[in-house]
Write a structure and sequence with these properties.
- This protein is mainly alpha-helical.
- The radius of gyration is 67 Å and the shape is rod-shaped.
- The N and C termini lie far apart (171 Å).
- It is built from two helices and no strands.
Length: 179
Amino acid sequence: RPDLAAALRELRAQYEALAARNLQAAEDWYRARCARLHERAARSQEAVRASRREAGECRRQLQARLVEMESLRGAHQSLERQLQELEERHNAEAAGLQDTIGQLEDDLRNTKNEMARHLREYQDLLNVKMALDIEIAAYRKLLEGEETLFNMGSGGLPSLSSLPSPTYSFQPRSFSSST
């Protein structure tokens, strides 16, 4: 029995030593595992924080882009209204200019017609003048011929030659044009 009791004690001591070592190994393993998990959790938390910061930054950028987009929409609508007003104003001005061009063309046509009428009147007056000039020249020739005859025939009549030579006056006829 003593040997058995000593062997049992020795086995018990070995078993307890093994159990203590296993317990120590399990605690070390547990602590190492916990430390790794804590480290991984810390990294994950940091990654989550970074993701949240990035998501917040993305939200802020999105809000800024939405505000900018709304601003650009308003500017676009304003420019569209201005463009439409300019087109309407341009169309009105073009219509006014077309009316002015039409009036100027009518005035030009009327002026050309009036100039043609004046030219015809001038041509008529020029024809009358030419006819009068021809008539005057004919009367002059006749008068010169009579004077020559009179002077030739008065050579024997001294009392007639002392008379002053006759002067003729011409009264122009007035013509009225039908305008």
